[in-house]
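Bit of a strange request maybe. I'm writing a small parser for structure token strings and I need a real example to test against, not something I typed by hand. Could someone generate the tokens for this chain?
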Amino acid sequence: MITEKNAKDKFAEYVKSPYVKPLFIQGNSLEILKELSGESIDCCMTSPPYWGKRQYAVNGIGLEENYKLYINNLSEIFLEVKRVLKKTGSFWLNIGDTYKKKKLLGIPWRIALELIDQQGWILRNDVIWNKVKGGLDNTKDRLGNVHEYIFHFVKKEKGYYYDVDAIRAKAKKSMVKNGAVVSATGVSGVRYKRQIELSAELSEKEKKNAYNALEEILKDIREGKLSDFRMIIRKQQRTTHSDSVKISGRAKELKDKGFYFLKYHPNGSKPRDVWDIIPEDTQKRKKHYAAYPEDLCKIPILATCPKDGVVLDPFTGTGTTTLAAMNLNRKSVGIDISEEYINIALTRCNYLF
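Reply from user aminoacidic:
Good idea to test on real output. This should exercise your parser:
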């Protein structure tokens, strides 16, 4: 474990080393981040202490007398995160909300808007973490809370690192049966050809163009360039999204050509912005710590940290982000003010004492 006094030198040594076991630094995140070199981190994934939720191992973020001070304190740290993050880097922030005198404060979005408006961060996604199950809730005048936000920020609009193929789900494959291509959902090229032939909405020229385009799609399926497809034919299937040619390119394409295709990537579909992930089991622990699970870190790290990159967690707690990074063969740096929590993190990451 490293302390504030030698953090800068040890960090520089670690980045150049071949090791992926995490580097842990104990101390105040703001002060430690100020010591680190600018543009030295590829990806930051963190879940800070939530405001007014519980007493943590030591005093620090989350114990402010009001939420405005809490947001100000976090914003100071996140400005330093922006400085140490590479231009191609990403910042993922998991944050929960708080009730005060029956009022839901909207803290996650207050923070997000502060970072966008005052620090110039660009928000690329707001992800809903559906925790699937919630804790005991005896309230009788509102719904139970089972979700939190994860915000994905970048420093520039284009050109940041993002490996979408690393996070795709396994594709369902189309099949070729008796010489005919059948999609993973049972739709065949033969069926579409029949619909084109019998269409009263397509001109003869449109029918010829549609048939030729379908043959090209079927060829791509056979050669493995696509995993699946849908063909939308005028008056045969519903237009996706909108029928208005003013707001939908698909609707305009259908009006002008008489058909269009929905093509499915051969490597599978990319994740959506709602993640169903069960929290860590806290019932069998001797020590209490956050339910922030390792699975929550996998998509951010795989998508936005190169294989030779470095992941940062300025509120590492018991080391979940760093553990996920290590298991994905990435370097990582975890900072926390609590010596107790860092010792737990060291144990979780298989450091021997």
